What does this fold into?
Amino acid sequence: MPILIRGGTIVTADEQRVADVYAEGETITRIEPTIDPKSLPRATEIIDATGKLIFPGFIDPHVHIHLPFMGTLAADNHDSATRAALAGGTTTVIEMICPSPQDEPAAAFNTWHTLAAASSHCDFTFHQAVVRFDALARAQLRELVATRGVASFKVFLAYKGALDLSDENLLALLELAKELGVIVTAHCENADAVAFMQKRLIDAGHTGTEFHEPSRPECVEADGVHHLATLAELTGAHVYVVHTSCESALQQAREARARGVNLWVEAVVPHLVFDKSAAERSDFEGAKYLMSPPLRAAHNIESLWSAIARREISTIGTDHAPFHFATQKSLGRHAFTAVPNGIGSIQERVDLLYTHGVIAGRIDLCTLVDAASTQAAKLFGLFPRKGTIAVGSDADLVVYDPNFRARFTREGSESALDYSAYEGMERCGRASVVTLRGRIVARDGSFVHDASRAAGGRYLARRPTH
Ligand SMILES: [Zn+2]
It folds into this structure.
């Protein structure tokens, strides 16, 4: 059914303006100061957006959905995670394919793609994690880029002995990425330093969740960013630092960019909202707030926000990686090193950015759109199909009520997770209507279930753009 959204304020990364938006089929076909409904097919659904904002569908560039862990799986599957995404205004997710080193890259791609295609309600694509780099992996990665629409890799400098590559292999991978025009996203922490600090703390009997941050302090992350930048400088590869958490890591990124390294920076929502005191909460409550890099000393929150305002940080994702408190986080009651890492945020991201960014006066609306949608589309080969409001772009639209006020609750979330890290916190703003390629998929902060059709998310094959 065609859709006309009337009277709202369109917000893109560059401008705000009042206009009507009309979508026929899956794409935006008209944007004009006023569109007369009489000029449209009679079946057109008219959405009154007076007093509301119209954003391009948001893109979360960093989520984990299918996530095998210690013989079990993270709390969400593609059904629940993408319902949650849409309810919160996110219409495209970029999921990390995280195989084990025993898995072949092509088989891992097929596993993730099959699962997502079966039950994803929003559009999706993947960063292919590279956790082995032998001749077979090299050949299969080339093939995935050439034929399956993979345009970004992920590497871990952290996770000693499990997921990290040797420097020799990292250099070879970056060289391949450069040749293929693929951007390499990277988790930057010095893996040996983390292993050393974890052992030292545990041996001293410091097993509580308050020791997670001291086990991987800021200097360890800054060292990881510096190391990645060095290897990128040597190879000319384009790299992207995921979940940057602190000023000292940002400083390394700034210095690398200043000397010409092609390096981009991502922040994720938990680091913009919480400081490390959350992970220090008593009665093991702190486990709800364990992620890596960890939540930091409070002054870093302002550093990150001002870097977003200056557009020095390009994107804001979530690192959504939900583990149930009762049955999964609890595996680490005896030692923080056994607590599965991650904070579920896929539904809350946009409202948190609106509340803590726009309402708090730290960023303007255009910067919100740039960081939470447009830049991810540009960096990862989705623009201008995604990431903006323009004739010819997919009709992924968020009609947003800036005056909505409530509090975050577990009950208000579509995620399967058994707690909300944001429980009881102030919430400003809500997606009133969300469309995915011209179809209404969420209303008033809830997913719209359509029993007459299968999950409507589509895989977004991409071409390398770097
Ligand atoms: Zn992650």
